[in-house]
Amino acid sequence: METRLLLGDEALAQGALDAGLSGAYAYPGTPSTEITEYIRRSPEARERRVVGSWATNEKTALEAALGMSYAGRRAMASMKHVGLNVAADPFINAALAGANGGLLVNVADDPSMHSSQNEQDSRLYTEIALVPCVEPANQQEAYDAAAYALELSERHSIPVLVRLVTRLAHSRAPVTLGPSRGQNPLSASTDRTRYILLPVHARRSYDRLLEKQEEMVRESETSPFNVLSLGSDRSVGVLACGIAHNYLLEVTDGRPAMPVLKVGQYPLPIRLVKRLAGECRSLLVLEEGYPYVESRLAGVMGQTLPIRGRLSGALPRAGELSPRLVAEALGLQATRGLPASPVPVPRPPALCPGCPHGDTCRALVDALALVRGTGRVFSDIGCYTLGALPPYSAIDTCVEMGASITMAKGAADAGLHPAVALLGDSTFAHSGMTGLLDCVNESSAVTVVLVDNATVAMTGGQASAATGRIEAICLGLGVAPEHLRVIEPLPARHAENVAVLAEEIAYPGPSVIIARRECLQTLKRRRGASGQGGAV
Amino acid sequence: MRCDILLAGVGGQGLLSVAAVIGHAALSLGLHLRQCEVHGMAQRGGIVQSHIRYGDAPLYSDLVREGTADLILSLEPMECLRYLPFLRPEGVVVTSSVPVRNVPDYPDLALVLAAVRQIPHHRIVDAAALASEAGSPQAANFAVLGAATPHLGLPVNALAASLDAAFASKDTRIREANARAFRLGVAAACDAAAPSLG
Hints:
- By secondary structure, chain A is α/β, with parallel strands linked by helices.
- Chain A is 39% helix and 17% strand.
- Chain A has three domains: 3-221, Thiamin diphosphate (ThDP)-binding fold, Pyr/PP domains (Rossmann fold, 3-Layer(aba) Sandwich); 227-329, Rossmann fold; 356-523, 3-Layer(aba) Sandwich (Rossmann fold), CATH 3.40.50.970.
- Chain A has a seven-stranded mixed beta sheet, sandwiched between helices. Chain A has a five-stranded mixed beta sheet with strand order 9-11-10-13-14, sandwiched between helices. Chain A has a five-stranded parallel beta sheet with strand order 15-16-17-19-18, with helices on both faces.
- Chain B has a single domain, classed as Pyruvate-ferredoxin oxidoreductase, PFOR, domain III (Pyruvate-ferredoxin Oxidoreductase, domain 3).
- The longest helix of chain B has 20 residues, at 172-191.
- At the A-B interface, strand 8, helix 12 and helix 15 of A face helix 1, strand 2, helix 2, strand 5 and helix 3 of B.
- Strand 8 of chain A pairs antiparallel with strand 2 of chain B, so a sheet runs across the interface.
């Protein structure tokens, strides 16, 4: 059997390909990006005509996957944890409509916020949608989880969330591939009562979904991803979820002395949890993210066993786990390294030298200095968020995808002037267009600076959905042609760019300045730069 | 055998290429392997690190446990100092002496190198000189890899083969410069009597 060295993301993608996947849809976002990158690069995917598509955002990605599932084929949508907020509407309602062909929603959480603005735990979403969740512990399990979860999805006509975390998504290990299965034939659903969620149908669908919950618990109780192993040290029983199980094995040399329930599928396998509790005098819950399992075990009223975890303070409430933290929670001897050095200073990420966003930020700061008022720059998610740092210090906010134009509108409505929105071309396509329409409809005094580098740069240069069509989109949304300006962010054009920005900032209605210059990274790749740097 | 390594550097130095070369060499010898990388925002000129673990027994954690690393292999002198709590007391630091000064408050280089010299087992490599002797300043990462070979527990030839395979698609000039830089690093390590010569 073939073995490949794969990231957790890639293992999941390969597993899905081997399980007869027909379509993968995604919006790029760390740490989930490599799932879809892998599908798009895969010669097998090309040969089998598997769709590997960068969608405009996570919502459109999940809806396309839902449509492919409706047509009877196996499909998946992949996103980072905050992407599921954007796709929450299709996610929760797809649970009612159900899956025809197997439907996976792959979500990569980012505990410790390595590249994110929060560390929300996607397992909680599965409680709202009432769908099962599979959480692989390692790369091999990520591969195996794809076929398993697709079958689970088809067996119960229900979408399944596959949860990854950063350290699994971005770690490599050898993965042994299994047999490959063909794709499902086209067989579109004929059940209108399921897919037309009129209240009269939805009530029945909801009843069916509720009825499935007990089956989901039984599936968890017999799942290969949930394994109870007994041990002689009965002072504590450990529930180890996902990659936390790896840390447990690491610090106990692969042979924990205590009873352990390895949790890799939810809803919680209730009978296994009760058996574990019957084997020990206390419980320790090891889980990445929120104290999700711990809080469900603890409840509010009296409990028979002491339960420790992130909620009790045995482990930190925030941030990712590590072998050291797990060893400490188990009361094991610490392994001490050398003392920490006081010498290193922080080295924050920065815009690349010569980056067009740097030139735009400098011009914007100088233009705002020319205009009277106490203006603010409402920015967004992308490389240009680094304009927050010196030497630019050019932005005042960055909250979530799209919250630049819309926050600027609200602030302008409140009387703040100038109200500037700074966002990139891909973020504009993802969630900026609707906000711009709001501004146009109400003639809001918002100046939109749209930094167009023709790519999704922060995640590695994926195709941007609006490339080549930004002017047409803005005009189509109703921006006045005389207030749709294009500048080239270059040091040599600084003075004229400042003048254009200052003019439009002074205009008391909606205007868009497109600052257009290609990303240096994609330019370098396009020109076939020689390759010591970067990954091979 | 088992080897737990922390790779340290700055975005753009080719750290993940070094990780890939070590990883494929370990796999070619039939060893178990786990390698953890940093992607995304942290790569924009910020700190980059990778954990690599390999050995003949199964490995579980993708992360090296603090106090157990055998080696910190660093492409930048200040960066190796970030991870000292991961290094076991007898562990080794192999670092390039060449600073990447992309922050305004980068400390005095003499202070940085003095801190490296206080580490019980360390080797400081003039990677820039070796790379330029090899004919490519960009190959500094593989000069440091070469200098670390005595501590990797892998045959030098397996690493050289993995390096060549990793750049199989690149032109001969780049492959030869990488190979020369690697060999110069290996030679620099052999010249030194003990790893604490700095």
